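Q: How would the structure tokens look for this protein?
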Amino acid sequence: MKRFAILVGALLLPGPALAEVKESSSAGFVIQLGVDVPSGPQATWDALVTPRKWWSAEHSYSSDAANFSLDPRAGGCFCEVLPNRVSPKAAPRGSVEHMRVIYVEEPRALRMSGALGPLQAGAGTGTLTVILKPQGEGTRVLWEYAYGGYLRGDVPGMAKAVDSVLAEQLLRLGKLLGARGGAEAAQAAPASKPVPAAPAPDSDFLREMQAGIGEARDSNTESSPPPGLGAAPPEKAMNDQGFVGR
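A: Here is the predicted structure in token form.
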């Protein structure tokens, strides 16, 4: 991608929201991001799987977000076409696979595998899990990007850069869906203080995020995990930002 720099100060999402490098080591890193939007799960899903409407052209190979597409089915591609330089109607000069879809449950969960941006040139890969949770008439959107493998150079610095870029994309998705705050809130708030998080999600959703994707649709009942996804780990203490503590 053209730009993958660490943004100055705290990048605040339309609120309440959170962007955080949850874990970082020489082996990789884990990034968690969340935002509440006023749209329902289906409308949120429809926007999520149309990245050309919200992904920044600044973080593309073609300099045009219109060239993004996402096929929301197992094996589907989050891809970008590289148009012909001579004529947009001529055969494209190439294409890029940013991530590949490995789990879909519309309109609740999406998981994709792949190394984003300059990470693509390394010997590792990442997994992006997106969960949409109904919150009244709106939706809580939670992203987790876990990357592992060989990384050249400053791993904590790269983790912060990826965190900033992903947070920017979630900010843009939230604004598309009508979330208030965003850039205006970011300019007004001190850089050292994140936007207050949304009220703590219920415990079944915390287990879902910790496990990746689990079978926990009813917060009042305990459900067995579906085949192939494994049992959810024991519930962990929740920190003051609304995410599971370590």
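The longest strand covers residues 123-135.

The beta strands are 17-25, 28-37, 68-70, 77-82, 94-105, 109-113, 123-135, 138-150.

Upvote if useful.
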